[in-house]
Design a protein that fits this description.
Number of strands: 0
Radius of gyration: 24 Å
Largest sheet: none
Shape: rod-shaped
Helix content: 40-55%
Order of helices and strands: HHH
Distance between the termini: 43 Å
Low-confidence stretches: none
């Protein structure tokens, strides 16, 4: 598939220079950048959450305050 992208002149010169240093084409560098960006987003969205996060003997009736939540769930 073909597409058109407007790249500022200064950025394109930098891109072309890097491509020459790495003995690659500008197209290869652009595609590699797009792949890296998509891979990063896939990893972020692939994280699964197991529910319920906090278990209860009577679901829907758990009364808990912030201090108890911090005790139950490990926060970074």
């Amino acid at each position: 598939m073909r597409t058109t992208v407007d790249i500022p002149d200064a950025l394109y010169r930098e891109l072309k220079s890097k491509a020459a240093r790495e003995k690659r084409s500008v197209k290869e560098l652009i595609l590699r950048g797009v792949e890296v960006e998509l891979r990063v987003r896939r990893k972020k969205s692939a994280r699964r959450v197991t529910l319920p996060i906090v278990s209860s003997k009577s679901p829907g009736t758990l009364e808990i305050d912030n201090a108890q939540i911090y005790d139950l769930i490990p926060f970074p």
